[in-house]
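Subject: for your reference before the review

Hello V.,

The reviewers asked for a structural picture of the protein, and I figured it would be easier to keep everything in one thread rather than splitting it across files. Below is the amino acid sequence we used in the manuscript, unchanged from the supplementary table.
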Amino acid sequence: MQPKSISAPAKGLIIALIMIVYSLIIYFAGLYSNKTLTLIQYIIFGGGIIWSCIDYAKNNVDGTTTFGNTFAHGFKVTAAITAIVAVYTYFSLKFLMPEMMDYSIEEARKGMIANNQMTTEQIDQALAMTKKFFIPFTIGGLLVAFLIFGVIFSLIGAAVSKKYRNNNPFKEL
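And here is what came back from the structure prediction:
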């Protein structure tokens, strides 16, 4: 009997929980301003998707594991991660760590002032609009970024995983 692969939603849940725990550690340690540590989440994300594609191909050796099947599995994992992390992001920005919005807006203010292309009034106007729509912009950006990177990591995972083809044309008869 061959081993069965963990389902795509279960893998997505596992990877999303690892990402969430990591982000909470970064937040409570006060290291959220360190860009390198925040980028590690994308390494967890990408590594998790690639691992899920390799695991899928390794555990489904019944002759149906193709590049397309493996990519589809990786993208299903991506969709699960994206949905879970989007819900977590909403609740964390709304209830768990609402001060992150103020921190992000203050960092944006510093960047705009350093850029020196806008007046103080224009900066205040832009940041007032940003604050008003911060959570929808953040979740929208997360959705787009995770889905784009998910496609890329799923393609990589499907490319590096071993494919198993049914070489017996009479098996289906």
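For the response letter, the relevant points are probably these. The chain has a mean pLDDT of 87. The longest strand covers residues 64-65.

Happy to draft the paragraph if you're swamped.

O.
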